[in-house]
Amino acid sequence: MLVISGTHDLLTTAEQGRELAGYIEGARYVELDAAHLSNIEKRDDYTRTVLGFLGEH
User: Which of 6, 13, 27, 45 could bridge to 34 as Cys pair (CB 3.0-4.6 Å)?
Assistant: First the structure.
């Protein structure tokens, strides 16, 4: 499981993302320098992260 959070997200905070990942055994947590729409705001970083994760599994 991959959990991605945005450092500056005020709706779903990075703290909540870290907590969620902590509840999922084997989860990977990644925090991007973005707000709520990290897949748009940091699309290259987001895409690289997702593809890297999928390539491992």
Answer: 6
Instruction: Give the residue among 55, 4, 56 at the shortest CA–CA distance from 29.
Output: 4
Cβ(41)–Cβ(34) below 8 Å: yes
Cα–Cα dist 1/3, whole Å: 7
Whole-angstrom distance, CA of residue 44 vs CA of residue 16:
23
- Give the type of residue at 8: H
Domain that holds residue 30: 2-56
Domain total in the chain: 1
Q: State the average pLDDT over residues 22-47.
A: 98
b/e sequence 39-53, b meaning 16+ C-beta within 10 Å: bebbeebbeebeeee
